[in-house]
Amino acid sequence: MSEERPTAEELRQGLTVEIVQGDQNVRSTDREPIVGEVATIYEDDPMGPEVELKTGVVGHVQSIVHDE
């Protein structure tokens, strides 16, 4: 499985993603991922595309959550 993050161009509103907030350590194994639906897509960033979720939380996308 690839660890490559999606780009801002691959994202769309309503897509369910996993994000980390800017003050969280992206590589930390004890972090709790935040999962939610994309409301606003801002820009690409080395830490992952920055988005705002419908809940108002802003963070960097780590992965797209696919329906099982």
From TrEMBL:
Pfam families: DUF2196. InterPro entries: DUF2196 (IPR019240). This is DUF2196 domain-containing protein. It comes from Natrarchaeobius chitinivorans.
